[in-house]
Amino acid sequence: MKTGTRRDTLLPTSVSTSWLFWITFCFGCFLALYTPHKLWAEAAQRIDLQGPSLGAYSVYCLGALAGLMGLRWCILIVLSYASMVRREQQPGLQDGDASLPFVSILAPAYNEAACVTDALIALVGLDYPAYEVIFVDDGSTDSTYKLALPFAGTHRSRHGMCDVRVFTKPNGGKWSAHNFGLRHAKGELVLCIDADSRIEGGSLRLMVRHMRDRRVGAVSGQIRVRNRKSLLGLFQAFEYVLANGALRLSQGATGVVMVVPGPIGLFRREALDRVEAENERAGGFENQEMSGPFSPLTFAEDFHLSLTVLALGYRVEYEPHAIAHTKAPATLAGLVNQRYRWNRGTMQVILWFVRRTLRGDKSPLCIKAWVATAFLLDFFCFPPLYFVLLASSLLYLLHGGNLSSLASWATAACLANVMSGSLYAVAHRDRVTLALLSPFFDFYQGILLNCAWFIATLDQARGARMRW
After folding, report:
1. Helical segments of 225-268, H only
2. Cα–Cα distance between 126 and 132 in angstroms, integer?
3. How far apart are CA 449 and CA 18, in angstroms?
4. Residue 98 has pLDDT above 70, yes or no
5. Pairing of strands 264-268, 189-193
6. CB < 8 Å & 24+ apart, contacts of 395-400
7. Going along 121-234, which residue ranges are E strands?
8. H or E element that contains 374
């Protein structure tokens, strides 16, 4: 059976990729060491000549922040490259392998009439011998259910057989639709997706191969933005490349992928059953009819589920070539609203994990390390530090700092980001030209996205009611 579903190797050890990694890594290490050294030397010289001043201390602050961010950047890129090498050495699955397990695909939908037909066409055409699609209409007010209903039944293709079952239920949220669908699932593996995403044909095979290791409880795929005709869409596409590369690839090196994303995530049924038992023990389900592994306690049910799977002792892997093409927000208002929910949900999950740890519930040390070094920094430290960095730079200039010197450091940091972005794009078979957005990306992330973070932080601090 010929198909294009075989894994296209990352080829991290090839000349075309390895030289990019080594140049990027060496340049990043140089900046991480030389930048704070140079800035601190300049601050010391200022104090010797002019005495202690706010400007001198702002330079010290700039140096410390530059060193911290540079060190973290170097560690992440090394782990990402290690993950690329490890995946190149893993054997692939053979086409037509009769030992492939039966998989249940859960596809919850709410008011997705515009894309439900294309989504189901893609799902019934996956390159996999035996699987089922459980489509759950979560009380849509449009024609989603009517458009999905004709797909119910058995579909046969040259790849195998797919059984589609279509359900509808009163609206209760994505978490309840997933739990509802799971009760009807037959597979020992469960693929959770979003109805508005397009799964590439060979993705399921690539993810299933990780499940041959019984220690693996879940596998994350790659999310790729498909609407890239606007500048906002391009920025989001580059953001996803960086998130997949700097976080999921690096976390995959240790088998601790913290977030299995909603658009494409494969779970072992055994792990989901254990998470459900954990949720029932902790309480929190007002409607016991919709209880399950997906929790209503946060905006980020995918993060909550992933972190619980990890806390139970399972590994969570990353398959960069299992791709879900998702539609990103097309307007600034839609983007800010999405990031508000993501940021607030992430804060809720982190606080839940901290409370869980403080009350004595056990979890592997590597998970605590990733939560501390990645999420605590990313969601509680780096957003305000970004504004501190801007303020320190402004104070530096107002107190006689050299504009050309500051611009040269900014240019060097931008060049490092261009190189790392190019490496991550190559690793994910995406457009390398996205890395050219790096000079402007800090304004998108540091100002626009941090506004959503600021609003989410205020609402979380004052206990504002969550609205889906």
Report:
1. 231-242, 250-252
2. 11
3. 32
4. no
5. antiparallel
6. 395/54, 395/55, 395/58, 396/55, 396/58, 396/59, 396/62, 398/55, 399/53, 399/54, 399/55, 399/56, 399/58, 400/55
7. 130-138, 153-156, 161-169, 189-193, 198-199, 216-225
8. none
pLDDT tens digit sequence for 196-235:
889 998 999 999 999 999 999 999 999 999 999 999 999 9
Q: Compute φ and ψ for 118, nearest 5 degrees.
A: -65, -40
Rounded to 5 degrees, what are φ and ψ at 427? Answer: -60, -30
Q: Tokens representing 113?
A: 């009439």
Encoded tokens for 268: 């072992």
Residue for token digits 């010290």? 60
Cβ within 8 Å of residue 278, ≥6 positions away:
308, 312
Closest CA to 309 of 354, 359, 273: 273
Q: Evaluate if residue 9 carries a pLDDT over 60.
A: no
Given a cut of 90, is residue 443 above it in pLDDT? Answer: no
List CB contacts of 166: < 8 A, sequence separation 6 or more.
135, 137, 145, 148, 149, 151, 152
Sign of CA dihedral 51, 55, 59, 60: positive
- For residues 90 and 199, what is the distance between their CA atoms, to the nearest angstrom? 22
Contacts of 459 (CB under 8 A, 6+ apart): 340, 344
**pLDDT attached to residue 289:** 57
Give the mean pLDDT of the chain.
85
pLDDT of the residue at 49 = 78
Cα-Cα-Cα-Cα dihedral of 262, 263, 269, 274, to 10°?
A: -10
What backbone torsions phi and psi does residue 54 show, to the nearest 5 degrees? -65, -35
Q: Would you give the end-to-end CA distance of the chain in angstroms?
A: 45
Picking from 244, 189, 183, the residue whose alpha carbon sits closest to that of residue 212 is: 189
Q: What is the mean pLDDT of residues 243-251?
A: 89
Q: C-alpha distances in angstroms, 287 versus 120, 179, 280, 360, 468?
A: 29, 12, 12, 28, 17
Nearest in space to 205 (alpha carbons), one of 217, 195, 191? 191
Q: Are 220 and 265 in contact (CB under 8 A)?
A: yes
What confidence tens digit (pLDDT) does each residue in 22-81 have? 888 999 899 889 888 887 887 888 787 777 777 677 778 778 877 888 888 889 899 988
Alpha carbon distance 120, 125 (integer Å):
9
Q: Residue 229: what residue type?
A: K
Q: Is 208 exposed, middle or buried (0-12, 13-18, 19+ CB in 10 A)?
A: buried
How confident is the model at residue 90, as a pLDDT?
64
Tell me the CA distances in angstroms from 368 to 57, 73, 89, 272, 380, one per residue in order.
33, 19, 28, 21, 16
